[in-house]
Amino acid sequence: MSIYDSEVTVHHCRFDQTSSRSPFATGATARLHLFNNVASNGLDWTVGSGCLAQVLMEGCVFENDQAVTRLSTCSTSYERGLMNAPPGSNSYRDESTVHVGGDGGEPHDAVFTPSYIYPLEPAADAWPRVISRAGAGGPWALPLVLDGG
Q: With CB atoms counted within 10 Å of each terminal CB, which end of the chain scores lower, N or C?
């Protein structure tokens, strides 16, 4: 999923066996807030930021991902994307520790602060909740309601 010059929040989602862009934000006005998501078995990089986009990633769990994050530059201006993974907030399991771009470590750039209140769970609590509930037909799915009119 690519987010271009938009403001998006993604939470309590599961990404499994993706090749990249789970998700990817790009563009100077892109703001992406990820919290309490689970990404497993990523075949390339998982979460990315490019061209001055800003990503805040909190309380997420990564397991068996080839690379957790990727910071990319624009082909024209060479401006790098920004990402903040607050220290101790995310969980990196089963050797999911690779971060591409930047200094190679967990990214801690200065990014936006969400303008809303949200119920951030510790990554250890989010993992079982997302695994058991996310997906089509899961307990979080909304029932289909037909308008009787």
A: C
H/E stretch holding 123: helix 123-133
> CA 41 from chain center: how many Å?
14
Q: How far apart are CA 67 and CA 25, in angstroms?
A: 16
Name the residue type at position 126: A
Backbone angles phi, psi at 34, to 5 degrees: -115, 130
| Residue 17 CB partners (closer than 8 Å, separation 6+) | 40, 41, 42, 43
Residue range 24-77, pLDDT digits in tens: 999 999 999 999 999 999 888 999 999 999 999 999 999 999 999 999 998 877
Strand partners, 132: none
- Let me know: does 27 contact 4? Beta carbons within 8 Å: yes
Query: How far lies 36's CA from each of 54, 67, 80, 144, in Å?
Result: 18, 18, 25, 25
In degrees, rounded to 5, the angle at the alpha carbon of residue 22 between the alpha carbons of residues 9 and 10 is 15
The ranges assigned to domains in the chain are 2-118
